């Protein structure tokens, strides 16, 4: 009887995870591909939710981030990366604010009555760097077209997400089939070197397929990304695992039943994004 009940529970859990994944993928692809406005609004919402989760993690680590100035600064920084050419206005072209905002946060800490103001300040700024800047940079990547032109081009980010999914899938399969040697057991007990190497090799193959057959764009770019993405995505996953383990939590949030929070779903893209921006800028 216990086994039957356990099986029923597992089926129910699997169904919840599958439905959540379907909704998540649909919203992600819709926001990514529809137009620039849906793209930037989607990732703005993701970045704000991610920042909120980061600040909750900081609370569990004993810090008290300055949420008010943190969210205002995050809003301003994100808007600074919104592509003014596509929006048809230059109202947000005040990039010097990026240099000023961290010092304004320190000024807030100076007059705050909370304990450990330096720690609180660093967590406030760290949350913006970790949860907002990577998604803000995607606004730059999505507007780059090979040849130096500027237009809405979601293909690069779509292909990158496909490579991240490829790495996750093949690393899991490789670890399940061949995994024997733990990678960093104290942070992520399930990751193995065998699974990581299998995911790396198959993602290079996926990069070739994405570049040559799916997106039919510059093959050299996708071979480079095929090699870079698995390394960066795995690192991003491990960094988020390290944060959660130190905070003593399983998931960064409960926004998506069975899948955790925003940081859980986008941990790989968070770490891939800055390097993607640099790679595309250098090659485009």
- What is the β-strand count? 2
- CA radius of gyration is 20 Å
Strand order of the largest sheet: 1-2
Structural category is: mainly alpha
Give the overall shape, derived from the CA principal axes. Answer: globular
* Topology pattern, helix = H, strand = E: HHHHHHHEEHHHH
Strand content: under 5%
Mean of pLDDT:
84
Considering DSSP H and I runs of 4 or more, what fraction of the residues is helical? over 70%
Spatial gap, N to C terminus: 61 Å
Number of domains: 1
Ranges where pLDDT stays below 50 over 5 or more residues in a row are: 1-9
Q: Count the helices. How many? A: 11
Question: What kind of sheet is the major sheet?
Answer: 2 strands, antiparallel
What does it look like?
The structure is a single chain. The protein has 284 residues and is mostly helical. It has one domain. 74% of the residues lie in helices and 1% in strands. It has eleven helices and two strands; from the N terminus they run αααααααββαααα. A two-stranded antiparallel ribbon has the order 1-2. A hairpin with a 3-residue loop joins strand 1 and strand 2. It is globular and about 55 Å long. The N terminus is likely disordered.
């Amino acid at each position: 009887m216990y086994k039957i009940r356990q099986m029923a529970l597992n089926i129910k859990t699997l169904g919840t995870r599958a439905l959540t994944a379907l909704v998540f993928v649909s919203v992600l692809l819709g926001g990514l591909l529809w137009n620039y406005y849906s793209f930037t609004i989607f990732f703005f919402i993701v970045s704000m939710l991610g920042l909120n989760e980061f600040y909750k993690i900081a609370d569990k680590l004993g810090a008290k981030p300055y949420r008010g100035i943190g969210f205002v600064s995050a809003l301003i920084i994100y808007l600074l990366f919104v592509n003014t050419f596509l929006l048809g206005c230059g109202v947000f072209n005040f990039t010097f604010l990026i240099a000023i905002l961290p010092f304004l946060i320190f000024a807030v800490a100076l007059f705050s009555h909370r304990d450990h103001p330096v720690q609180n300040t660093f967590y406030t700024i760290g949350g913006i760097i970790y949860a907002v800047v990577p998604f803000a940079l995607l606004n730059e990547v999505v507007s780059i077209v090979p040849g130096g032109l500027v237009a809405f081009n979601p293909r690069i980010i779509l292909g990158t997400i496909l490579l991240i999914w490829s790495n996750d899938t093949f690393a899991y399969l490789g670890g399940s089939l061949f995994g024997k040697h733990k990678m960093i057991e104290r942070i992520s007990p399930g990751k193995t070197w065998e699974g990581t190497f299998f995911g790396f090799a198959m993602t290079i193959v996926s990069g070739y397929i994405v570049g040559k057959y799916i997106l039919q764009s510059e093959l050299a770019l996708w071979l480079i990304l095929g090699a870079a993405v698995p390394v960066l995505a795995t690192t991003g996953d491990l960094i988020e695992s390290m944060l959660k383990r130190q905070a003593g939590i399983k998931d960064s949030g409960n926004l998506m039943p069975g899948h955790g929070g925003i940081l859980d779903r986008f941990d790989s893209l968070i770490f891939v994004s800055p390097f993607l921006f640099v790679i595309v800028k250098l090659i485009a």
